[in-house]
Amino acid sequence: TSRLSLGLANTEPEGQTLIPLRQVHPGRRTLNLLRGWGKPAELPKLGAPSPGDKPASVPLSKFLDAQYFGEIGLGTPPQNFTVAFDTGSSNLWVPSRRCHFFSVPCWFHHRFNPNASSSFKPNGTKFAIQYGTGRVDGILSEDKLTIGGIKGASVIFGEALWESSLVFTVSRPDGILGLGFPILSVEGVRPPLDVLVEQGLLDKPVFSFYLNRDPEVADGGELVLGGSDPAHYIPPLTFVPVTVPAYWQIHMERVKVGSRLTLCAQGCAAILDTGTPVIVGPTEEIRALHAAIGGIPLLAGEYIIRCSEIPKLPAVSLLIGGVWFNLTAQDYVIQFAQGDVRLCLSGFRALDIASPPVPVWILGDVFLGAYVTVFDRGDMKSGARVGLARARPRGADLGRRETAQAQYRGDAHVMRMRSG
Description:
This protein folds into 2 domains: 146 residues, Beta Barrel (Cathepsin D, subunit A, domain 1), CATH 2.40.70.10; 163 residues, Acid Proteases (Cathepsin D, subunit A, domain 1, Beta Barrel). The chain is built from 6 helices and 29 strands.
């Protein structure tokens, strides 16, 4: 299991934590979708955003170009775990030292030991979380959370006693930290973000992702809790309201492929999800998209792209909030290199999600790598919203770092990612 070192960058403003992250080489990536989007949960029409205001940050790493993860601590003294930061779920769980002997994933990851923590409080409520590729069962417990530069938050989390899928065995992170809305949380547990705000450790219920998908550089990106890093995007941020405060779901007006093909013509829902590596859309529309870009069907719904054709392929443009967000072929083609062998796969996948009355698209890491995304839960006065801006090319942000940091609040915490 990969572990991330936490560290403070000397160049950062006071109170702002920078944490290095690692990025796993894309040649080891997987396109399996962790979550079972085909079976959406029953969700109420409205969720209740929590009040509060304050920034902080947490370290992230990237595994198989599908999971961005970083290090947290649980207990006193902190026991360190790597967790995937997932905007499509809302619980925190890690493997337990008390896990079932035949739960194979447990033996390949760090395990929480309640006897080694002086601040541990038993809860004992059973929990179960179903993912698209497996299920996690365990018990709830309470202890102190350390995340980025934030210490002392008392959180209820899951100790996983049984992980049913081999996917969890090969997964680099030990567990998952959900960044979705409270309504998604199993057993009504307050999500970690809400707890940080309610306990006064984070000013604002806001976080942002900068995901670096370039395998040639060591920096894998940042997760910023409480704000965003203006050095990493080209202003302005375009904000759009969250339409269903459960998943981070917004309205998308249209999708264009070059100048000839229009998809999502009557409007559709779009869910921004760090737990999905690709862009997912309705089967018929994704089939038409691949016909337009010359995609060749492969197994399991994947499409091969001729690598030599990448410079000639059309842009795919998403109209959100009245603004066009363009993806070039360099953005949406996933490229592997192993020795002299080069393989190019489409970053679009088909999946029909039963969620009337509008079609649903999922904007995963292919989109989130091209556009810095600010997730703002809002407060009692304003609803939840999402901000989008084009990610600044690598290297271009370094000269602006000093200037941009002057715009940070003193209590912002930032976590950086490194490639491994």
